[in-house]
Amino acid sequence: MKVExxxxxxxxxxxxxxxxxxxxxxxxxxxGLFGAFVDVGAECDGLVHISMVKQxxxxxxxxxxxxxQKVEVWVHRVDxxxxxxxxxxxxxxxLKWNQIKPGLRLQGKVIRLEKFGAFVDVGAExxxxxxxxxxSTEYVSDPSDVVKVGDEIEVSVVDxxxxxxxxRLSMKEAAIEVExxxxxxxxxxxxxxxxxxxxxxxxxxxxxxxxxxxxxxQNNERKELEDILDRTLKxxxxxxxxxx
Length: 244
Fold this sequence. Notes:
The chain is α+β, with helices and mostly antiparallel strands. Among the domains are: 9-88, CATH 2.40.50.140; 97-176, CATH 2.40.50.140. Helices cover 23% and strands 28% of the residues. Strands 1-2-3-5-4 form a five-stranded mixed beta barrel. Strands 6-7-8-10-9 form a five-stranded mixed barrel. Strand 2 and strand 3 form a beta hairpin. The longest helix has 22 residues, at 218-239.
């Protein structure tokens, strides 16, 4: 959910509408020793504790953000009854290890390129790796020929190693599935194509019905007539009166 910074109190969102891990856009309004206050368009400003300004140790909040700076934050905790909103500038883990299974399709963002592949943020604790051999169904010599840092791509999970905290991803399987889907869609005729096929079939059926009936074998017919004539002549000879 994206909440724009607004000065009109009538347009501010209620704290009860905000949930943990919800993404918000805001503006830094005040900086203290313990953190920064950010206006995200709620009933009150949210606090980003110094430990949640960024990954790693931070000596001073001013080293990371300044008053008036627009920032991207996530809801950490919210207590509507106490009018308290805690925020974080560290992107929360959206995908847990037990949710990552082979074959799972995910949307991710390319965050780093190496000669051996591309690292993709899929919302897990750590980014996954798409090895150079898994970038395309064709040979790839350089990952930058296929993807760039910042690209939003679709990947599928090949496997995971929780002990080493590794996630192996593939763009090949996702691409193959997309091609299969497109082929399946192409096989489905449109309404016009279906009507045309029916009309052609009906024409073929009619033509098969009105085809001329083959004539009887003329040789057989002639033979039957000759036999009848021969029997008639013989009969007349036998019944004719003998001359005296």
